[in-house]
């Protein structure tokens, strides 16, 4: 699970340390820095879209998957940039500068966040599949669903606590960027600029993903979900389908599971509720697996970036 993060003040939304804009690079920038600029601008456009699409028929997990895919494209370009002789020579000449230490520190911390988040998602996938199995047994008369639901809720609560710590650490990283010297040559200045912009967008996407994974959930109370009464007061249970467009995959599962514990009459209605919960869990399972694959690919690229930086600075 997630670790090595420092507690700090927590805000429920990612802190944006930059304005959404196009980067204006020097006219004589290397083509590789220009490609990184293009990837950064794509990610910033994605960020605007992802935060303004909650009211449409839109999958939050799919959107996050696209963000992770964009990061992979970005770090592929960064790897090319770090292998340029021009870049290697420039960084080697400044390897004792504080802003170089900042780049190295960021590379290992994002690697930790990516790996720990990937491990957390893997554990979540196992928890979801246990719940899916319990629902299948419920269909044939097994009444042990409550234990599986309680285990799922406990896992979600534990994940939320861990996510708070990681989010706080990411926000601290965003605030530590030093102003780099103005006397750097054009190429090195461009390299430092795009690497810092890349760091900020990486942090932003990780924060969005972590907030998705820590979607709030209310615990069961006395074999009944306290969430049920709240949702009934708001009329949510009566109009689940009309609300589903504005919910992410995890919220949809919460509502479907809550419905299972609401008072109801016929066996037909009970069967429909179980089928609905199964469909929602299957969608969440697919979404989680997609995010896991995205993080696995990104993790490998972050390793390459870290190794490339170390190799440049060790000569």
Automatic annotation (TrEMBL):
One matching Pfam family, short form?
BPS1
Biological processes per GO annotation? root development; shoot system development
**Name by which UniProt lists this protein:** DUF241 domain protein
Top-level taxon: Eukaryota
């Amino acid at each position: 699970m997630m670790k090595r993060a420092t507690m700090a003040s927590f805000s429920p939304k990612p802190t944006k340390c930059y304005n959404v804009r196009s980067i204006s690079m020097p006219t004589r920038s290397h083509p590789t820095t220009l490609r990184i600029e293009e990837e950064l601008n794509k990610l910033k456009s994605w960020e605007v879209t992802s935060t303004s699409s909650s009211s449409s028929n839109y999958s939050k997990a799919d959107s996050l998957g696209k963000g992770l895919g964009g990061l992979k494209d970005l770090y592929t370009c960064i790897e090319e940039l770090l292998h340029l002789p021009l870049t290697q020579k420039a960084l080697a000449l400044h390897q004792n500068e504080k802003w170089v230490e900042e780049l190295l520190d960021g590379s290992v911390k994002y690697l930790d966040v990516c790996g720990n988040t990937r491990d957390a998602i893997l554990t979540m996938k196992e928890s979801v599949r246990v719940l899916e199995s319990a629902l299948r047994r419920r269909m044939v008369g097994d009444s042990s669903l409550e234990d599986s639901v309680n285990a799922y809720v406990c896992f979600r609560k534990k994940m939320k606590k861990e996510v708070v710590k990681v989010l706080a650490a990411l926000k601290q990283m965003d605030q530590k960027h030093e102003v780099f010297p103005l006397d750097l040559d054009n190429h090195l200045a461009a390299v430092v600029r795009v690497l810092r912009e890349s760091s900020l967008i990486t942090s932003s996407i990780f924060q969005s993903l972590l907030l998705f994974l820590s979607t709030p959930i209310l615990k069961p109370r006395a074999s009944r979900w306290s969430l049920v009464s709240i949702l009934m007061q708001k009329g949510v249970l009566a109009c689940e389908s009309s609300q589903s467009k504005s919910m992410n995959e995890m919220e949809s599962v919460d509502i479907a599971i809550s419905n299972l514990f609401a008072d109801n009459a016929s066996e037909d209605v009970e069967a429909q509720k179980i089928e609905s919960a199964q469909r929602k869990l299957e969608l969440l399972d697919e979404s989680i697996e997609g995010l896991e694959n995205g993080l696995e690919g990104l993790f490998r690229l972050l390793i390459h970036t870290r190794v490339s930086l170390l190799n440049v600075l060790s000569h």
